[in-house]
Amino acid sequence: xxxxxxxxxxxxxxxxxxxxxxxxxxxxxxxxxxxxxxxxxxxxxxxxxxxxxxxxxxxxxxxxxxxxxxxxxxxxxxxxxxxxxxxxxxxxxxxxxxxxxxxxxxxxxxxxxxxxxxxxxxxxxxxxxxxxxxxxxxxxxxxxxxxxxxxxxxxxxxxxxxxxxxxxxxxxxxxxxxxxxxxxxxxxxxxxxxxxxxxxxxxxxxxxxxxxxxxxxxxxxxxxxxxxxxxxxxxxxxxxxxxxxxxxxxxxxxxxxxxxxxxxxxxxxxxxxxxxxxxxxxxxxxxxxxxxxxxxxxxxxxxxxxxxxxxxxxxxxxxxxxxxxxxxxxxxxxxxxxxxxxxxxxxxxxxxxxxxxxxxxxxxxxxxxxxxxxxxxxxxxxxxxxxxxxxxxxxxxxxxxxxxxxxxxxxxxxxxxxxxxx
Length: 422
Known about the structure:
The protein is an alpha+beta fold. 18% of the residues lie in helices and 29% in strands. The model is unreliable at 7-28 (pLDDT under 50).
């Protein structure tokens, strides 16, 4: 058979398939009725690469597979409407009936909800027909809602207060955020809330990401007053001098070694807490090292961290064995600095849009048996882990308040040891 004959036969076959596909029934199937002005139509092929839909402005697609519709970050609910323009409002029970996937039925309409961290985006969708593996759909983008967040930090002129690591602010304290310039960009190094009466921060907050987790410089020991505080609130070396306690970093020096400027800011006196030497250099340092390992493990996209000491629960009448280190009957040092009875960490991890949280609650004592160079094991530290809900009860703080309420409630209610790389 000649090459020309083969080409002629191939053309005949192509003409045959085109004719079949152009039959009145096929043309009717392809002409999807538009039931709401502005809607789009699309023919998908179940179980193939052409089964995917990614609407404009959406980070992820949804798809048809095995006669079901599904997609990461998408949920679905069936309606009683037969046209898109009849889908006026979301049903009142919609908050409880969303499904991760749902069977498709010809002629049926669905609400499609896409969930990002801050919004819900809704799509109206109608299955116009199902013809074997071909699925004709009509869809139109609906409204966008902000995800509920009743306790978020709002009404402030500093954008940093909306970061996920920030607790709910206390208007009685003074908020300070510290930025550095790194590779030509402004990076939030850490923030704190200062209690002028106690001469101590209520907390410090910061995050580890691809930039801030880098190890690039050595400790600077650049002790300085905090320029972000009013002069009347600033503490100095004199406030710590000869009180017998370590100047314990809250945002640790080794937490911020991605730039010299960033590390120098950790030596502001506002970031210091009077700590028993063995506690600062041993037991508490064990927890700091654990979190630093998490931050630099590449197991998480980002860590959000709030640390502090309890300024409403102070270490009263403490005297060490040499009687050189002490607090009064109110829990203040010789120079009037509040000395916390407990220290805490609240940690939130983010990985591919999934969040987990864990807290640590540790009493400020000198008898743990650890010191500089001798640190607690992971098994020991696990016994001090608590849920964020429990930590909020213990501290009176509202952690991770800028997360949408449903995410916050979920991650704060429990913690899982297996979510963390001990």
